From TrEMBL:
Coiled coil: none annotated. This is Actin-like ATPase domain-containing protein.
Amino acid sequence: MSSSSRSVFRGPRRKLVLAFDVGTTYSGISYSVLDPGQVPEIKGVTRFPAHEQISGASKIPTIIYYDRHGQVRAVGAEAMREGIYETAEDEMWIKTEWFKLHLRPKTEASRHIANEIPPLPLNKTVTEVLGDFLKYLFECASSYIQDTHANGPDLWASVEKDIDYVLSHPNGWEGIQQTQMRQAAVQAGLIPDTTKGHARISFVTEGEASLHFSIQNGLPSGAMKEGDGVVIVDAGGGTIDVSAYSRNTKEVKDSFEEIAAPQCHFHGSVFVSIHARLFLDKLLAESSFIEDLDHIIRCFDKTTKLRFRNIEEPQYIKFGSTRDNDATYGIRFGQLKLQGTDVSQFFEPSVKCIVNAVIEQRKSAHKSISHVVLVGGFAASDWLYMKVLDSLKPLGLNVLRPENHVNKAVSDGAISFYLDHFVRTRVSKVTYGNFCHIPYDSSDPEHVRRQGNTFMSVSGSKRISDTFDIILPKNTQVSEAKEFRKPYFRESENRNEFKDASFSIWCYRGAVAEPRWKDVDTDNYTKICTIEVDLSHITLTPRYKGKGERGQYFRLDYDLVLLFGLTELKAQVAWREGSVEKRSPTKIVYDPDITRDD
């Protein structure tokens, strides 16, 4: 779809939408000025401070230099200026890069990379560092829009107090990461810390943003017209995000549905450099050039890694001058020689990851898949593209890369997500549920085995605790409007215990098809969040205990109403007063402890 088939903006006044794509290694900004009666267009910021010499550059390095007092000294392209390395050394500045990976969910799949990520500066949290970077991106957007638009300063003045933001994140990020990103936006001064301020931020996964980009920049015609399934592979600096979609052919207006649970893997381009470093660390261990390893890796990143496309030819890392020679280690005239087969091994885990993920998506998808679209900065690697193509083409898959600006896919796609909203159905990545207690059944051997978990309820019935009540099974297609309701009740002799109610939402990430008990595969249960609600205004009628027990108690019957089909979890609590259903808004609180590195 081009902007020509986008409808005109019908808002009452001019609005600005900014999308910040904070990548592990590079970041970009896209935006749209929404004028009433006009068709919105997606534009990109293509000029950044200290990047002027590279006209049309759509991305800057995700790097911040802090001084010893924790003050920001250089960001983005400024942090790569000539001479900055020496200044940083002399003044003992701290270089902060790849900081986005500190946000990642601390699941088993991501634990192995903890030692590979450069540490955060002392006394700085990832939220504070991200806040500093978002503040910088905001300043870049402000300058660019004011400098390049007719009446730029007037335009900016008319929108700056009410800007909407779209923040993209890897497929594997969840509510806790979204909360931290929102906190960073507050710290950066982008929004006030109020409910209304928070609502000005939307989140989109990098996979879904990439789909929106691909729809406008080269989605295969089969996927657009016939509704064939397509896997979008967003290969970035830190993560490889894999998502599968198909067009909903029943609808006249372009709309897509997710057809497999999205995946997120830590095999982006920085891991090619990590494998290169491990190899060279071993190779040069006894050499005097081991001191230059950081510099050699930087040179590998800028040239060898990007140009590599032939396993037969030797590869060179040009890092020194003609005086740097050591034949023992393949160093001549300041160039380190590597075999093409060795360099290919640095890429191998990433290639395998993409191929396996695509095959898995195809296997678990709700529709057949025939196309694979490769986007993201890492997709620019011809070697990566060729190896993925070689593996997937024999399986009958059509693999392609959009021509224009694969590295702008996420920020442009994030604006399209805001404007066009193509995806209306998503697939659950995990099984969601709630631990609760149920009536004890003496004829059920599972109950008898857990007799130690039984108790007598306030109302006098025998119950068994720690059962997992599934609200949404894994790999289920969910529309945005679909509500998931589960009835629960709460009993207590004390009326005040109903005042501030809280409910926990858990997820199960393991292999048991229908998880039922907390004591089976315990480690794969994770608490997602706590839902808090004020119920003090609800009228409760006292009840009398049965089975000869004296006294009264209170009981509240309620439904937990959850919406999983949006890009952010939403929750409400519903109950009945007579024949009327009442609902109460809730506050979702994420537990910050699960985000810390061990």
